[in-house]
Every structure is written in structure tokens, then in C-alpha cells.
Amino acid sequence: MRNDEAGGAGSGAYAGVAGRGLWVEEPARRLRMPDPVRTSAVRAVVIVAVTLTQATITFFLTLTGSWLALPMALCAIAGTIVATWGVLDVWITRQTWNQRYGVLSEPSSTARRRRREARRAARGARGATPGRIPREDGPLAASGPYTTR
Question: Does the predicted model carry a pTM greater than 0.85?
Fold first, then answer.
């Protein structure tokens, strides 16, 4: 029995597609989040999920008139505060990462020209002044163990 008779890779609608694997790599539409930002985002999602679960349980306990409604309500309020901080943590971490590592600075042609002119001016100023003071004429030449006179 041939491969295409048994419903194998060469049969059916995919008969013309030869050699195409199961996994096709596609380029990402957006860049991957940096590790610290992703970590804080995952933490925030977990905290928000737990807080929403607490709020739902509190709602149902309140409907049933259970004595657990008050402690759960207090926990849900505390969870809301923590969840707000978790979301702010994502935002702060993202801004901090962008300020430290996210800026790719490319000087414009104007900035390049100005730096070139400043370098030339600095070289010209260095060339106009004498270089190092020779040892024999220096302020410490007359004193010390290395006198040549």
C-alpha cells in the first residue's frame, strides 16, 4: 500500500505542499517584553486574578448572609490595594527599563559636525601650548635624588 492511498502526507488537500513542516516560524509583530517587566506583569496578573476571585466569593457570601462575608470583604479590600500596587509596579518597572536601556541614541549630522569642530578646536588649543615640561626645567628638578646638575 502506497503512502497516498493510506491518507499519508501526499494525499488530500495537501498533496501539492511538499516538505512543509508542522512548525512554521513567523516573525513577531511586537518585540518581547524585557524580563523584569514581564516578571512584574505576571505577578500583577496573578494578584488581580486572586483579588477578583476574592471579590466574587465575597459577593456570594454576602448574598447568603454568611458570617464569613465581613472577613472576606476586608481581604478583598486589601487585595484591591495590593492589585493596584502590582499594576503600578508594572508601569514603573517598564518606565525604569526604558530609561535605562530602551533609548538608542543616534546623533544627528548637526551634532556630529559640532563635535568634530569641538575636537578640532581642542586639538588646535593643545598644539598652541607647549607640551610637557622637560624634567631639567621643572619645578622639582633641583630637589630630589634625580638631579642632573
Answer: no
In b/e form, how buried is each residue of 38-66, taking b as 16+ CB within 10 angstroms?
Answer: eebbeebeebbeebeebbebbeebeeeee
| 8-state DSSP, 13 | G
Can you tell me the distance from the alpha carbon of 85 to that of 79, in angstroms, rounded to the nearest whole number?
10
Q: What's 93's DSSP letter?
A: H
d(CA 43, CA 47): 6
Residues 6+ apart with CB under 8 A from 86: 40, 43, 44, 47, 48
Three-state DSSP at 77 gives helix
pLDDT in tens, 116-148: 888 888 888 777 666 555 556 556 656 655 555
14 grid coordinates: 495537501
Give the count of beta carbons closer than 10 Å to the beta carbon of residue 80: 16
Residue given cell 518597572 in the structure block: 93
How is residue 5 annotated by DSSP? Answer: T
Taking the CB of residue 72, how many other CB atoms lie within 10 A of it? Answer: 20
